[in-house]
Amino acid sequence: MTTTFRLNTVLLDTLEGPVRYAFPTDLTILAGPTGVGKTTLLEAIKYGLGSDGMLAPVITESVTDISIDVTIGDARYLLVRSTDANKRGNVRVTDLRTRERLPDHRTDLDQAPSLNALLMGALGFSDRMRAAARTSGSTNTGNRISFADIFSFLYIAQSEMNRDIARSQDTYLESKRKAVFELLFRLTNEEILSLRSEANRLNGQVATAQKETETIRSFLRTTNTTGKEEALNAYGDAANDQIAAEAQLRVLRAAINPVTDRETQVMRDLLTDTERRLADARATVTSLTRQRRELASDRRRVEADLARLERMRDAGARIATIEFVTCPRCLQSLTDRPVPDGTCRVCLQHDPVTSGNDEDQYEQRQLTEQLREMDAQLKALDSQLASANEAINDREALIKNLTIEIENRTAERVTPRLQAYTDASNKLADARARQRELDTVLRQWDRVDDLAAAEKRLSAERDRVRADLARREANLKDRRQAILDELNAEFARAMHSIGVPSIETAVIHPTNYLPILNGKPFQRASKGGGIITATQIAYWTSILYVVVSRGDTDFPSFLLIDSPRMALNAATDISAALYQRLATVAAARPGKLQLIVADNQLPETVQRQFAEIDFDYDHPTVSTIRHPGPSAVTTMHENEEE
After folding, report:
1. pTM for this one?
2. pLDDT tens digits for 43-55?
């Protein structure tokens, strides 16, 4: 079933109030002289649907919001988009079927929720489809197909009317234009588009693997690197050399081990025992030295205590001879009070001071005794240290003599084998070095093999994808031919009914889907804008006629046309035929499609079999804003050409 696409109303919220247009009929003509704002209204519709419309100054300066009531498939939405540069990225969306206000949608394809995804979903399409290039060796996975690409099939802009069809002259859009045409006519589908993108992606990976493989092979050839087979053989030889060298070393180690006579063994045992006793003697010296150091420290402490006692006794003797006349504490006179005999003049207590120095105090005697004991201990430690040091010297001399004697006894057995041991060690090192070098070479060859295997695997996967793609496209071959036959028949009939001069044959190309006039592409068949304009009308109305007749496509039954008479000038007959063609297509399938045409004054011979909205400078399309008059008009088409 053909997808319904119908523009219900357009509302412009201006600074001076709202301006509303309804489009209830199948064919609506917006008529009026140049500059009254017809193109302004059509570009506002394009803008309201999320695309980049060319907004006239009256829109950007005087219109705050553009509201579009549109039916797409089974859905009906109200889309409200601000003209403010800071707000234009958001579109307010209301589902008019359920009367539910949806979250604001973004015009950016990659930001969610996306208006593009909403509109593509209403058309029954995924918003992730890509239009990949179709050349066999292409690596371009293609750009995403958006609603704006589909809308270019629904809107013939004034700038394209007399020079191009569906922007076919923009070669960078060629793949996308053909993909959209096929998608709308169900000559392709999401699976086929995905397979084509996947095949191109695999083309890129295969090309990358081939390039890397050739780069490494070239490097190996340039550096004269050993071939893989030769490297494997050399690696095996190096591994064998390593095994042989390790075996020889084991034999030499066993031969070098000193297997000596009994006397030598006794000397070795004695050497071991002497080394052990030397270690014990050194440990003893260390311990005795630590003890002597600690004892000397204690002795110095005791001497300090004795000296302290001596100073105290001397101080007491000196103070005892002093006759105080004043209290040393309160400074009161001591001479005016009676002092009993045998008492202290100051404290009046018994005076212990007696004459004579021969009596030793107890503490002094104890400290003196300790000093004597410590001196005895230090003397004993010094004696032990001397004995231990003497033992160390004797044992060191014995170890030296034993070592020399053992070396003399074993030299003839060990020395002849040391050179052989050194040679075997060098052979082992060389074998390991060769293995490391060859291992690097083999890793490079393994990289080549991995890349070759990856290339083979990717090529097989690409061939599988291509085969699947070819099979799916073959399944659509009959449908493609049937649709092209119908389009060609209707296009030829349309060109004949319009009466385009000098055109004898008119068909649609089977692969690029553009008009072929008199056996030539339409751009080369005529340079006249009138013929291209007539071809435009015939082409698009033929597509719509076939679409609504078949009823089994996804092509939206909608067409927005801007200024078809612009290039016709005085060709009144062709102008009348164009409008007759539009009216015929609209009447052929009532309620199945919608045509909206903006144009200058209509031909007088045209029968008014359609709804007509007339504009003039007093009643422009943005009627709430006063028009500056015809002298101030600069059309958007003129601005674009500049």
Report:
1. 0.66
2. 999 999 999 888 8
